[in-house]
């Protein structure tokens, strides 16, 4: 008689799992052997990425439509599933909008995370918070390490990232048995190589790569490059563009570290970047080259609030998480274009 094994898989909740980062993380988690429940209020996305995730994984993924500001609903979900870890993505993320509507950002981003923390404390769930390099603000000490001092936030959005990091740090400090990791993303770009999931901004994109791909697709007329008079080699800003699949894999490493009890401290922070600065102009040129097309662009005035340059020192994540960015900028920009062509309505 064949022996039967009951393998108990660790269960992970991905809040905001129908979005750009959440969908890629779900795929990597499931492929690494985790059981995943996706929850999303669908306020900033449609079902495209959810459907894509199900197609990549070849099965219908558990999905709960819910708002993380609803404390009762969050409690109920945690009680039902007893998650081993939660990855919290459910938040508003438009920097400019947050300046005009700070209350919307504070109310949503802080309330939802407090509810996640409260439920995690009660049910002993490990917490992974999706933070951002925006917490480093404008700094000239580059590259930034996790020990680099955070600068005052330049937007309510950035402020919510700093505050949520502090909520997590303090909760872990106060409540025995709690563990948390904050991952500070640099500039996530690209799409899954299958072109079944990717970035789907609503309206006019704020971020560089979706604006580039939409311009190439004819959805936007012309890309504006914000400033060519910065003190860099070609005068444009420099960023650390991190491939979305690489970024997603960092989450698997972090979740594994928490669940397997391998953390060195109960609260840890990791930069998730490549460590390689790339200028806006360099990125535009690489996009044109690898996809063999010409982009309509013009140089315009600087965008208020942009920092000249920021890139990560990813040594801590490399050594402690055993994670490293692997995909080339060329492959990432090919994937971004493939995805855009898939989602652009035929003319
Ligand atoms: C912003 C946020 C960051 C967030 C990231 C991804 C801040 C200060 N930045 O980063 O927290 O994680 O988005 O959502 O909070 N650019 C153009 N033309 C465009 C768009 C952008 O030239 O149409 C330039 C910008 O001036 C900048 C670079 O491209 O130099 C990258 O911009 P963007 O993609 O918006 O990301 P960040 O502002 O770096």
Walkthrough of the structure:
By secondary structure, this protein is of the alpha/beta class. The strands form four sheets. The chain has a seven-stranded parallel β-sheet, sandwiched between helices. Strands 7-10 form a two-stranded parallel sheet. Helix 6 links the parallel strand 5 and strand 6. Helix 1 packs parallel to helix 2, helix 3 runs parallel beside helix 5 and helix 5 packs parallel to helix 6. The longest helix has 22 residues. It is globular and about 60 Å long. The chain starts with 10 loop residues before the first strand and ends with a helix. The model has no long low-confidence stretch (mean pLDDT 96). The structure holds uridine-diphosphate-N-acetylglucosamine (UD1). Uridine-diphosphate-N-acetylglucosamine (UD1) binds next to helix 7 and strand 8.
Write the layout of secondary structure elements.
Blueprint: E1 11-15, H1 20-31, E2 35-40, H2 48-57, E3 63-65, H3 71-81, E4 85-88, H4 95-100, H5 102-123, E5 126-132, H6 156-174, E6 180-185, E7 187-189, H7 208-216, E8 223-226, E9 238-239, E10 241-243, H8 244-259, E11 267-272, E12 278-279, H9 280-291, E13 297-300, H10 315-321, H11 329-343
Parallel strand pairs: 1-2, 1-4, 2-3, 4-5, 5-6, 6-11, 7-10, 8-13
Antiparallel strand pairs: 9-12
Helix pairs in contact: 1-2, 1-8, 3-5, 5-6, 7-11, 9-11
Bound molecules: uridine-diphosphate-N-acetylglucosamine (UD1).
